[in-house]
Amino acid sequence: MKSNIQDSKQNYTQTMGKRLLFIMALFLFGFSIQAQDKKAKDLLDQVTAKVKSYNNITIDFKYSLNNAKENINQDSKGNVTMKGNQYVLNFMGVTKIFDGQKTYTIVPEDEEITISTVNEKDDDSITPSKMLTFFNSGYKYSMDILQNVKGRKIQYIKLVPVSAKDQRKEVLLGIDVQTKHIYNLIEVGKKGTKTTLTVNSFKTNQPLSKNQFTFAGSKYPNYYINKLD
Question: Which segments of the protein form a coiled coil according to its record (predicted)?
Answer without folding.
Answer: none
